[in-house]
Design a protein that fits this description.
The chain is of the alpha/beta class. 34% of the residues lie in helices and 22% in strands. It has 3 domains: 2-89 and 251-278, Nucleotidyltransferase, domain 5, CATH 3.30.420; 97-243, ATPase, nucleotide binding domain (Nucleotidyltransferase, domain 5); 283-332, no CATH class. The longest helix has 20 residues, at 185-204. The radius of gyration is 22 Å and the shape is globular.
Length: 348
């Protein structure tokens, strides 16, 4: 059967979805990136090979997330799109009448406005990561509470305390202060969830063009697993939020849907490199400073199995030719940490 693959490489987690020809996930994978996107991508394809075999008939591949450019070049993606587009496509697919999408991931949070099935705009957090998955992980660890139980604590609160949530630093300082005053964990966590939800609605969801959050509202991204955050949003908005079944992998699902559209639109073979190769490849980036002009561009090269597959970072087109040698600039290069390692085969 025909299959379509989508991968979402984020700052905190990496997600992979395989769709069947009916546009429904027949496999979803969700793993932490751990600051090593290349190793995370390879481990995903090893698990895919172990679970479904390496002989799948993959007709199209899409990549999204903050690491989409790297992932797209590594795996041979046919569609490389922003997470805004991917999340909106997946949301409209499962709920054609959706009006608003709240997506909160590991490092960013965003709201997507949709009208009549068409995305009309979006807003993202800019300088503050309060309310994102990494912030909540940090607070759960500091309070000695498993992140999986964080939301359940909030639902047991009797008197949520007021936490300053305008900024992540202020929120943490105020949380510590209230903790030192002896408030129980349930009230602290409930107050924090309310504060972070209020911060999102006042700063991210407030649109200067006057676009409003319209129902139905879909809540997706890793933070949607936190029932405390969901309850806080519903309390402040005065209406229920819908959490999709596959809320953690909606970006990857959207990327796979875009790949399927590409496959139907363009009658040409996919650029996908194959599961077997991606499960065993070696990949390494290298950088050098171009000295041909005063711009001194930092050019990054990506090698797959010792073959150069891509370059980026140059302001002009002189390095677009992959046959051009960069050996003359190697001595001036400050290689990324670990770039001299022979691939990532040992990075399990």
């Amino acid at each position: 059967m025909k299959r379509y693959l989508g991968i979402d490489v984020g700052s905190v987690t990496t997600k992979l979805v395989v769709l069947d020809d009916d546009e429904y996930p027949c496999l979803t994978l969700y793993r932490r990136t751990n600051g090593r996107p290349i190793a995370a991508i390879q481990l995903m394809f090893r698990e895919l090979a172990d679970t479904m075999g390496d002989g799948l008939d993959i007709r199209g591949v899409g990549a999204t997330g903050s690491g989409r450019l790297l992932a797209g070049m590594m795996i041979g993606a046919d569609e490389v799109r922003t997470e805004i587009t991917a999340h909106a496509v997946a949301a409209r697919h499962i709920c054609p009448e959706v009006g608003t999408v709240i997506d909160i991931g590991g490092q960013d949070s965003k709201v997507i406005f949709i009208r009549d099935g068409v995305s009309t705009g979006f807003n993202m957090n800019t300088v503050c990561a309060a309310g994102t998955g990494s912030f909540l992980d940090h607070q759960a660890a500091r309070l000695g509470i498993p992140i999986e139980e964080f939301g359940d604590y909030a639902l047991r609160a009797r008197a949520p305390v007021k936490i300053a949530g305008r900024c992540g630093v202020f929120a943490e300082s105020d949380l510590i202060h209230k903790q030192q005053m002896g408030h129980p964990p349930e009230d602290l966590i409930a107050g924090l969830c309310l504060s972070l939800a209020r911060n999102f609605l006042q700063n991210v969801a407030r649109d200067p063009r006057g676009r409003k959050m319209r129902a139905p509202i879909l809540f997706q991204g890793g933070v949607a697993a936190n029932v405390g955050m969901r309850a806080a949003f519903e309390r402040l908005l005065g209406q229920p939020l819908a959490v999709p079944e596959h809320f953690t992998v909606m970006g990857a699902w959207g990327a796979a849907l875009l790949a399927r559209r590409w496959a139907r639109r363009d009658d040409k073979p996919t650029a996908f490199r194959g599961i077997a190769r991606l499960a065993t490849f070696s990949c390494r980036p290298r950088s050098f400073a171009c000295g041909d002009c005063a711009n001194a561009c930092e050019v990054t090269e990506l090698y797959l199995d010792d073959g150069l597959i891509s370059r980026w970072g140059s302001r002009c087109a002189k390095w677009d030719d992959l046959l051009r040698s960069s050996a003359d600039y190697r001595d001036e290069c400050e290689l990324p940490l670990g770039a001299e390692l022979v691939g990532v085969k040992a990075a399990t």
